[in-house]
User: What shape does this take?
Amino acid sequence: MTPEALARVHSAAFVAERAWTAQEFAALLASPHVQVFTHPAGFALTRTVVGESELLTLAVDPAHQRQGVGRHLIEEWIVSLAGRADTAFLEVASDNEAAQALYAALGFTAVARRPAYYARKNSAAADAIVMQRPLTLRQSQIQQPDR
Assistant: This one.
């Protein structure tokens, strides 16, 4: 998808928030750490650095929401992280119960809350729920002495 197409889908999916511009998407896509996962009805934009991967945004055209597109994009992102990251995280609006349920079903758990994080056009700002998912089992760095 082009930055313009990403901006169109994002604008349609986030009518209550300020949509990201094509220029903002172009700048993000220029980073070597950013990946975009696409589907004809949506996309997931992620950034992976030093063993952590963040979902920057997930947007699905409203006509295709609740049809598995978002799940498919998140699963594609998680699979792509094998050997590259041991933690995935994201932020989701506290009033977006459908997205929270999707992320929980995919193994993410809430770990923090950011008050009034998402500005709304015609209502009060919504909190952000920070969710995290471990991707690999971490091995202890402490070695037990031989006995």
